[in-house]
């Protein structure tokens, strides 16, 4: 075999050449070449091992990701509403940081060059934050779903004659303006309207069982006494009272960036509390907000003052 077609030495052969060169003193040219090649291989192995160690350290420092389908703690207990400062377009987010990919999915085609091709964060500002409270993530996700459905219907299901007579571009501009519609939709959903709205507090199963037992006992007594008509009338009266009785609703807290936005709605139910200023969200094991932290700090200060006064 010619010198040009000579096979390259393996790593084991290079290590062997390094050992032989060390034993013989490395006088030959071939020994020096093999020694330098072996040293380079050793440096490469050390570099690779260092890179692997750095990669493992970075993986250990990185935050743990939740598997797909598994929701993090406190998911849905609060959500944020963002609006475009120029067009008043509205998007909803379950995280305090606006996710660009998820926000773009909420856009409907309202006209040519009216749907933003990309989201610039300097054009989007928080409009409100809706908070349901700890342990009410299911209710918050229900409100979030209802608001997104109503937004889509505003964009695609409209029969206003004035909009039909407008030019396409002006019609798209008005359809993109969802600021007032969001406030009206929020008041509607917080009032418990809509099929499957979880803002309405569910009745306990124990109360249902007790009512069934009481009805059965009344029916038995009525059959014995022959008073079926009287019991039917009582049942009808109870059903009418239930229909007329206002449902019990979960409490909802709305933090507004601008207090004047809440007046887009005609009325609000008593279960909604309005607070001016959107608190800074502090992620952590208990997922507290600045408002709750301030309240806890005030409570601690009061307890300390009472302790000093009693002492």
UniProtKB/TrEMBL annotation:
Belongs to the mitochondrion-specific ribosomal protein mL67 family. One of its GO terms (molecular function) is DNA strand exchange activity. This is Large ribosomal subunit protein mL67. One of its GO terms (cellular component) is mitochondrion. InterPro entries: Ribosomal_mL67. It is found in: Mitochondrion. Residues 53-74, 210-245 are annotated as: Disordered.
């Amino acid at each position: 075999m010619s010198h040009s077609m000579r096979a390259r030495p393996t790593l084991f052969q290079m290590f062997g050449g390094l050992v032989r060169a060390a034993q013989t003193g490395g006088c030959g040219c071939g020994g020096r070449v093999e020694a330098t090649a072996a040293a380079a291989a050793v440096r490469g192995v050390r570099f690779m091992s260092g890179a692997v160690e750095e990669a493992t350290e970075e993986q250990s420092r990185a935050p743990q990701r939740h598997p797909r389908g598994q929701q993090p703690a406190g998911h849905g207990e609060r959500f944020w509403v963002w609006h475009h400062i120029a067009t008043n377009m509205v998007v909803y987010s379950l995280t305090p940081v606006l996710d660009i990919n998820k926000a773009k999915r909420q856009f409907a085609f309202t006209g040519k060059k009216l749907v933003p091709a990309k989201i610039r964060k300097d054009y989007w500002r928080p409009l409100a934050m809706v908070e349901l409270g700890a342990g009410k993530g299911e209710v918050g996700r229900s409100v979030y779903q209802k608001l997104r459905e109503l937004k889509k219907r505003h964009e695609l299901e409209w029969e206003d004659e004035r909009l039909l007579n407008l030019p396409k571009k002006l019609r798209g501009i008005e359809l993109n303006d969802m600021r007032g519609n969001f406030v009206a939709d929020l008041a509607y959903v917080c009032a418990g309207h809509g099929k499957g709205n979880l803002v309405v507090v569910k009745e306990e199963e124990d109360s249902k069982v007790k009512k069934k037992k009481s009805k059965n006992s009344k029916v038995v007594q009525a059959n014995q006494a022959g008073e079926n008509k009287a019991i039917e009338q009582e049942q009808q009266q109870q059903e009418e009272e239930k229909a007329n009785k206002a449902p019990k609703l979960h409490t909802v807290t709305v933090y507004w960036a601008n207090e004047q936005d809440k007046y887009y709605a005609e009325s609000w139910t008593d279960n909604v509390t309005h607070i001016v200023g959107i608190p800074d969200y502090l992620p952590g094991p208990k997922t507290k907000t600045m408002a709750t932290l301030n309240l806890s700090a005030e409570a601690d200060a009061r307890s300390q003052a009472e302790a000093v006064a009693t002492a």
